[in-house]
Amino acid sequence: MADTQAGAERKRVLIAEDEALIRLDLAEMLVEEGYDVVGEAGDGETAVRLAEDLKPDLVILDIKMPIMDGLAAAERIAGGRIAPVVILTAFSQRDLVERARAAGAMAYLVKPFQKSDLVPAIEIALSRYSEISVLESEVAGLTERLETRKSVERAKGELMTKYAMTEPQAFKWIQRTAMDHRMTMREVADRILAEQQAEADPPR
């Protein structure tokens, strides 16, 4: 993975974790995997300030932090479209995962985590953030954005089930089809869902 990152542009990561030892371990793992750790914070408020100043490619936030917790920081960072967010959570905080998603987190890691857990979480976060950016550039209104995202998510699910595609492959297929046929991604997604519905409904 480190070679892949080195060959491509190295992703810049900001870490916010109030336990210095965990922060150190996390930074070491990231560097070993070919990421650049551009900033570290011990509380959510500092994390938000550093994210605004440094404009990293990704922010990793622990939930429990002083001054401002990770969920509030995620809301500010993700809501401001500064960077995708990965949330660190303990096993006892599983109930907070939904709140983290609502705050704009793209992925989460459950502590204690291994290096093998880290890269997939980062890649999922980067991929989802990229997808949302593409969709939002296509649609202006907030309500329509949400509906578009829902349709595309459901259509991706259909393609993944029917053709054994990965999530990024399904998104790229919808994106490419939209460009090829000069349609919006919402129109392509709606067609996929309409076809699926037609197949599911028995002929009368």
From TrEMBL:
The keyword Phosphoprotein applies. The modification 4-aspartylphosphate is found at residue 62. Pfam families: ANTAR, Response_reg. The keyword Phosphoprotein applies. Residues 132-193 form the ANTAR domain. Keywords: Phosphoprotein. It comes from the Bacteria. InterPro entries: ANTAR, CheY-like_superfamily, Sig_transdc_resp-reg_antiterm, Sig_transdc_resp-reg_receiver, WH-like_DNA-bd_sf. Residues 12-126 form the Response regulatory domain. PANTHER family: PTHR43367, TWO-COMPONENT RESPONSE REGULATOR-LIKE APRR6-RELATED (PTHR43367:SF1). This is Response regulator. It comes from Actinoplanes hulinensis.
